[in-house]
Design goal:
heterodimer, A: 120 residues, alpha/beta, Rossmann fold, five-stranded parallel beta sheet, 4 helices, globular, B: 503 residues, pyruvate-formate lyase- activating enzyme, six-stranded parallel beta sheet, three-stranded parallel beta sheet
Chain lengths: 120, 503
């Protein structure tokens, strides 16, 4: 479920979640046009599991074409740290909600300098 | 006897053969009306025969497909009746639960709920199942709970229940190609995804769809998946179109026969499009399909769904409906049931929301397509349970008023017409629900006409065709009681309902 050239991985960090669905939907259609068909989405959110799903509901409901697996990693910077440490994924993008500085620090620690900021 | 490591189950409303009359299963979509809940449940969903391990003789077809995939992959997996789950508590590692309508958000449950203000029994029963001591014990032991089926989307709106019951994964879409991967994850001790959506390209091919291993409810066998009509409110149309080959259909009928089920329900969104040329039925594959049923079993036949346009086209081009009914079906039974979708009788709305529903006829011809098809079915003793959708996103008052007016033209034809409130699914799954405060007088007019139509024809259908078997006398009495109650109640409170709904 995680391998293959048509698979794209997204790490998503959010708290308020207001714009998450909109941004994600726009970007997976863009990635879809490049041939990606399965999106693994790894969520870090203090909203908790499965409450965070509420903020992805529009995204899930509006997607028809692509396969999606949504995983919950945890709620804290340490959870993101462990995830980045343990997973070596290619075809990956990071999305972090505006103002979540502790999580940005984690990415910088792992030399991840390219990430997308989502407006809160 | 070692139990099963993967147990597939569901609540009583789904684990039943509905007295061999699948239409009675629809009673489970409403609350108990005029009867005690226990009696209502018995009418809608009586207990099913099971073997010593609690495996039901008949089970929901979707559950059977999941079971077949897992058994073919080498797992000890079986469908177990909810009353017998305790027999597998020690061995169970994964509990898979499927449903057509977990929380009664689907049509027509949501409508009965909205109108009566009472929770439908399917919702009550499912909650009872999830909160049963055996399911709770399984969860406490660390059993992974994976839920899925056509109502998977409903969990997105029930996050509290998701958390409370400890559901691990929700699978939305055709599961054949993903379910083994999830099971492997469990056995490898890897984290499961919370939500899995199976996209169009991950839908299984014909070769990847397995033959069921046990009996299906009332002999239901799938003859095709997907639908070419592209109606915006329907989720089935999102799937690629696949015709199941005759040898596979025969194999599934044989499985049912082996388990003592001699009836057959051809399942498809549009039975007459089996082997068809786009939206045009072809004579040869349809005749071969019915000949296959006729020669393989001596039991009765029903169609799950057919489109009205296909019925009209098939009859006018080839006399195909009459041929099937006279040469095959009516030599063995005195009627055949089918579900059909009218959805609206307004050509304007049909053009926007379901432009190909009337094809090969134009959307402007839709009302006459419906009437012609109803006439053909009436002549050939096919009894349709038809649906109408109220509150479609682009609906205008004129569309509903026109539908109400045109319903009069369907009066002479033996049928049940059920108005349903719009539920966001298919291409419209991001749109808003039709809510109680959006009900207008013209909607009430449609509902009233459908109710009077149903009450008139239900009496006729029960007297001449349905539930005539001697062993069904108690069910017949229960239904008669219900009909009498509805008539009495309708007369008494219709003015009150009208005023309440307008509030």
């Amino acid at each position: 479920m995680e391998g293959g050239t048509r698979v794209y991985n997204i790490v998503l960090v959010f708290s308020s979640g207001a714009s998450v669905s909109k941004k994600l939907l726009k970007d997976i259609y863009m990635l879809g046009s490049k041939g990606y068909r399965l999106f693994n989405i790894y969520v870090v959110s203090p909203r908790g599991r499965p409450e965070y799903i509420e903020f992805l509901r529009d995204f899930i409901q509006n997607n028809i074409v692509y396969s999606i697996n949504i995983y919950y990693i945890g709620s804290r910077p340490i959870d993101l740290d462990r995830f980045v440490d343990n997973k070596s994924l290619s075809n990956i993008s990071y999305y972090i909600e505006h103002g979540m500085h502790d999580f940005i620090e984690v990415l910088r620690k792992h030399s991840v300098d390219e990430y997308n900021i989502i407006e809160g | 006897m070692p139990g099963y490591e993967i147990v597939i189950s569901t609540d009583r409303t789904m684990m039943s053969n509905h007295h061999g009359k699948e239409f009675l299963g629809f009673l489970a979509t409403g609350p108990a009306i005029g009867l005690p809940e226990k009696l209502w449940m018995w009418l809608a969903a009586p207990k099913i025969k099971v073997d010593s391990e609690g495996k039901p003789i008949e089970a929901s077809y979707g559950l059977r497909k999941v079971e077949a995939v897992l058994v073919d992959a080498g797992y000890r997996a079986a469908i177990i009746d909810p009353d017998h789950l305790y027999k597998h508590l020690d061995s169970m590692k994964i509990l898979m639960i499927g449903h057509h309508d977990f929380f009664a958000f689907g049509p027509p449950s949501s409508e009965w709920w909205m109108i009566t203000g009472k929770e439908p029994v399917n919702r009550v029963s499912f909650k009872r199942f999830m909160e049963s001591s055996v399911v709770r014990k399984a969860k406490e032991k660390g059993v992974k709970i994976i839920v899925g089926g056509p109502a998977a989307w409903q969990w997105l709106w029930e996050l509290g229940s998701w958390k409370k019951w400890g559901v691990d994964t929700v699978v939305d879409g055709e599961a054949e190609k993903v379910i083994v991967g999830l099971v492997e994850r469990v056995f490898r001790g890897e984290p499961l995804p919370d939500y899995v959506y199976v996209g169009i390209e991950d839908a299984p091919s014909i070769e990847e769809i397995p033959v069921i291993k046990g009996g299906s409810v009332n002999g239901l066998v799938e003859i095709m998946r997907g639908c070419p009509r592209g109606c915006k409110f329907c989720s089935v149309t999102l799937r690629p179109l696949r015709f199941i080959p005759l040898d596979k259909i025969r194999a599934e009928i044989m499985v049912n026969l082996k388990h003592g089920i001699n009836g057959v329900i051809f399942h498809s969104e549009d039975v007459l499009l089996y082997g068809g040329d786009g939206v045009k039925p072809r004579e040869e594959p349809i005749l071969k399909l019915h000949k296959l049923w006729y020669e393989t079993t001596d039991g009765p036949l029903a169609w799950a769904h057919s489109s009205l346009a296909a019925i009209k086209y098939a009859e006018e081009e080839y006399g195909l409906v009459s041929k099937i009914m006279n040469d095959y079906v009516l030599t063995r039974q005195n009627f055949m049931g089918v579900e059909v979708g009218i959805e609206t009788l307004s050509p304007r709305l049909a053009k926007i929301i379901m432009p190909a529903k009337s094809a090969p006829y134009s959307p402007e011809q839709w009302p006459s397509v419906v009437e012609d098809a109803f006439s053909i079915m009436h002549e050939n003793k096919i009894i349709p349970a038809a649906t109408l959708i109220l509150g479609l996103p682009e609906e205008e008052p004129g569309d509903v008023a026109y539908t109400a007016e045109m319903l009069d033209r369907l009066k002479p034809y033996r049928s049940i017409i059920v108005p349903m409130f719009f539920v966001p699914m298919g291409l419209l799954k991001n749109r808003d629900w039709f809510r109680r405060n959006a009900i207008k007088p013209e909607h009430i007019e449609v509902m009233k006409k459908c109710l009077f139509h149903a009450l008139y024809w239900a009496e006729d259908i029960m007297n001449k065709y349905y539930i005539k078997e001697p062993h069904m006398i108690p069910v017949r009495l229960g239904l008669k009681l219900f009909l009498r109650y509805v008539k009495w109640k309708t007369k008494k409170i219709l003015p009150l309902i009208e005023s309440q709904l307008r509030k």
